[in-house]
Each structure stands twice: as structure tokens, then as C-alpha cells.
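so i finally got all the pieces together for this one. its two components total, 667 residues if u count the protein bits. some of the lines might not be protein, just check the labels. i wanna see the whole assembly predicted at once instead of chain by chain like last time, that was a mess tbh
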Amino acid sequence: MSEAAADERTGGLRPRAQVSVLRIALWSGFVIAIVFSAFISSGLGAFKTPYESIVKLWLSPFFPDLASGIDDTVRYIVLHVRLARICLAFLVGCALALAGTVYQGVLLNPLADPFTLGISTGAAFGASIAILLGFGSLHFFGVSALPAAAFAGALLALYLVYLLGSQEGRIQIVTVVLAGIIVSTFLSAMISLIKSLNEESVSTIVFWIMGSLSGKSWAHVMLILPYIIVGGAAICCFTRELDLLGLGDIQAQQLGVNVSRVRFWMLLAASLVTASAVAVSGIIGFVGLVIPHLARLAIGPRHRLLIPAAALCGGLLVLVSDSIARTILPGGEEIPVGVVTAIIGGPFFCFLLLRRKKQLHLQ
Amino acid sequence: MNMVFLPNRLVAILFVLWLTLAGASVCRAQSLEITDDLGRKISIDRHAERIIPLYGAFAETLFSIGAADRVIARTQADRYPAQIERLPSVGTHMKPNIELILGLKPDLVIMSSSRRDETPEISRLLDSGIPVAIFSPKTFEEIFSVTERLGILCGTREKALELNESLRKRLDAVKAKLDGVEKKQTVFFEIRSEPLTGAGRGSIVDEIISAAGGENVLTKEKGIVKYSVEALLFDNPDAYVVQEGPMNKSPLDPAKRSHFDRLKCVREGRVIKADELVFSRPGPRCIEAVETLAAALYPEFFRK
């Protein structure tokens, strides 16, 4: 990856002014695309709502009079069902892409993703146990026990991986990846065991594992927002150290980075962000693995820009995917969002990769 | 015309003799034959004596047509009627254990094709010479027909027809009571709470809802439909039925779920709990489900 970084730096020599204009255009483009998608998405659903009333509803928190002529159910559906879900999709996408970028940077492994350390399997394990034991009837604040169980499972997996992958409190990157794989495999086997013991619940477990944002509310958004804000802020404070880690441990150490401490805290922050996202959404694959690469192709390897870019990109991808997942089938039927992220993200990534390769050849 | 001159006693003796011979020939030469729901002909030489029903609904049917003593095994989930729990289990209805089944030497195996049409299990059993009948009843008429065909195979056709007759009468009674209903109640039937899954039109549940005077809010022709909360809010059904059972283990009370407090039926307390084993199994107890649901939907018509 450090080679790729070097390529980027030498290849990206452009006049400074042009670069900053491009950058501003790029960032505002991102934000506009996200707001626009959210707007379009909030008008899509099982029943048709004219965009005129969507505009009014969007503005209604600021100007309450605007929403007066709109049916109460429509208002509730747009503001509390669709927008909550859109926000949650965006946040989950942000979280996964953010965590993926950090994992790839810290573990120096282009194949790392938020689930490398077994967090997804841990969460799925927690959720499966809750489903098996029928904890679905427990709840607090309108949120069922499933997210809590998933979060607990994710933390358990993380702790196991840390125990296996650290030596005298220092994380060894190869060992920790191996530990992640081992814990993940073991927990997968346990999930299969639970599934075969409990055939009638297979569908619930499978659907949970494939990821879904169906029926989520603002309560879920509030549940994960603190993790994402705190985790994201922590990660943003360490962008310089993340860049230096890419040079290798010894170089980074010589440049004044406390390698083992940075590594520990970054992995912990990214893992908590992932765990919170997985707890509410189930396992949405692809985003955390590919979005960081996509952002790196578009914006370069420096984490100060890469991290926000990846987060926004990931948010956008999940937002769009979830909108498709909930509207593509008629009559209120849904498909898993993880399927859509892979279907629309995969070909797009291939396209970028091929084009980029050709450009590299030409230069 | 000679018969006219024969003494009455001789006529009677000849008649009895003829009946006996005819009866014996039916038992020996003429085999029992039915066509199952996959269109396959099942013929057995004599009444089935050792039957393994691989789906609870069929076990219930067999028990209620007087063939209880011929059922020799059950599947894991079967709990009704209570005496079935004494029988050995041969796996689950989705994954029956062939070894256990063969070991019990059944002369008839009954499967449900609700999940898949052809399974390796079927061909294994057929290879071993065990007749396998496959049924997939989705309406009351189909349940009655399955009951009758099981009656033929067990030699208890009379009892099967009697059962059907009494079930039909009970259905008619419900219908008669609902005569004065002006507006049909719309109903959402929850099969699973996570992910939210409702019963569509192509299922026995839909038939139960209609017979109970309700109208299913789902219009899909599929039996099991994953549904979005948004569409549910828009449908705003008059009553919400939550099924409880293996498929929906201790579901969260709808009143406590996010968004569900907006539903008219949840706010008015019109949430009806339903036993999955009664409501989703196409057996004789479906009629009981109709009676329960109708009474819950239209209490004013059932109070008398």
C-alpha cells in the first residue's frame, strides 16, 4: 500500500489553485449528491407521494404551517419512517466505510474490512442467540433486544480477538488478522449450529445476517449516533499518524508515532463504530471493503481527506442501496440491502479499476 | 327371474356369500388408490397400518379420522394431540431422517410439499419400496380432500367424511353468525416479527381470514410476504394478528415496537394473538382458528 501511496504522490502533481478548486467542487458535489439522494428517496415508497408535499414536509420542522394541509399518516411516514431510515442508512454506510479505511490503514492490508476482526460474526452470533432464546420480546425505548445482543456479541468477538492477537498488550498485525479469522470461523460454526437446532428461526437469522434497515426509527439513529461521532472524531484526530503507519512500523516509530498505542486506539475506535452499525443494521457487506479503495482511487491515500471522503461515499452508497432495496419490489416487499450494495457497488468498482489502469498505462 | 321362486332364506344366504366374496376380492386384488397433490398415483394393496406423517397437520388429521393407532412416528415439532409426544421422532419436517424412517418399517409415508416439490428423501423412500403420498392443501376444500384421501388409504373413509361434514357445519355456523356484518374488518397476519413478514393470499391463513369475515390487507399471491412498516402504516388494518409459535418465538408486543403505535388497531387494542400451530397448519384445527378469529374480529356477533 505504501507503493500505491508513492505512486499517488508523484502522479498527482498539479498546480495548487486548480487542485483546491477541484477539491471544493468535489466536496460540494458529494454533499449535494447525498442531500439530493435523500430527497429523492424520501419521496419513494409503497405509496406515491407528490414531491411538492415532500418539499413541504422537509421544511415543516422549520415552518410548521407548511405541513398543515398534508395527511397525518403521510407526514408520519415521510418524517418518521422514511427519513429516519434514510439517516440510519447514511450513518451505517459512513460508519462501515470509516472503519474499513482505518482497518486497511492500521493493518496495512488492502483486504481488511470492518469485519476482518470478526465483529460481524460476533454480532450475528449475539443476534442468533437472542433469536434462539426468543429475546425478541424484551425491549427498551421502542428498540428490541436484538441490537443490544448483537452489540454484546460484537464486543465479545473483539475481546477474544484482542486476547489472541496481542502480545504483552501490543497488537501484532499478522496475528490479529489471523485471530480475527479464527474467531470468525468458530463463531460462524456456532451460528450454523444454532440454525440447525432451530430450523423455524433460520429465516430470521439469515435475514438479519443479510442486513436490513426495515422498520427502524429515530431511536435507532440516536442509538448509534454517539458511537459514530465519538469514534469518528477520535479517528480524525489521528489522520497524520495513520499516514505515517503506512510507511511501516520502524519508520513511523522514528517519526515520533507511538505505533502500538495508535494502533490499539484506532482499532478500538473503528471496531466500536462498526459494532454499533452492525447492531442496528445487520451485516451489510462490500461497503467497508471497497469504498475505501474507491475513495483512495478518487482522492489519494492521505487520511485527512480520505477518511471524510470514504465516510461520505459509504453513506451515499448505503443510502442509495437501501432506497432501492425497499422500493424495487411492488407491494411493500423488501430485499436485503447488503445484496444491493454488492450489486451496484461491484460493477462500479470494476469500471473505476479498469479505467484507472488504462490511465496509468497512458501516463 | 328364477330368483322369485327361491325361498327367502336361500336368497339371504346367497346375498351374504356374495358380499363376503366381493369384500374379500376388494381387499386382496383391488388395491387402494389415490392421486396425491403432485399428481402421482399412490396405490397400496391393503389399508396402511404403519404410517409416518412427516408434517404435523397430517398427523392431526390422522388422529381425528380414527387412525391414531396407525401413526408410528412424529416429527420433532409435533405437540398435538398430546398422545403423539409418546411416539418416536424422526427428525424435522424439513429434514426427516431417512435411517430412522426406514428402521420403523412404515407402509406409508405422508409428506408436505409446501416447501419444495421433489426432495432426495422422497426418492430414497420410493427406492426402498415405501409409498410416499405428498399433499399441499392451501384451502379448506383441499384440506377436506386430503382428509378423505387419507381416509381411503387408512380404510376409515367413513370417519373422514363424517369429520369433513362436521367441519363444514362449523364453517357454515360461523358464516351464519357473520350474516349481519356490514363492513369487513381488514386484517394483517404477522407470520414473523423480524423481519416483518405477513401472510399473503396464497396460504391457508388467507382462507382462515376470509372465512372469519375479515379481509387480508396483503394482496400478494405468495403465502409468505416480507412487508415494510411503511406499507403497513399506509394499510392501517382494523386488526393485527400476531402468530406465536416456532416461526415467531415470543414476538415483541406490537404496542411496544417503534412505529406501530401509529396503527389504529394497536392504539385501540385490537391486537389478536394466534397460536401458530392452530392457524398456520392446514389440518382440521383450521376450523377452530376460523371460530377464534371470527369471535375476536366481531365480538358483538358472537356474544349471544
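Confidence is low (pLDDT under 50) at residues 1-13 of chain A.
Chain A touches chain B through 39 residues (CB under 8 Å).
anyway lmk what u think
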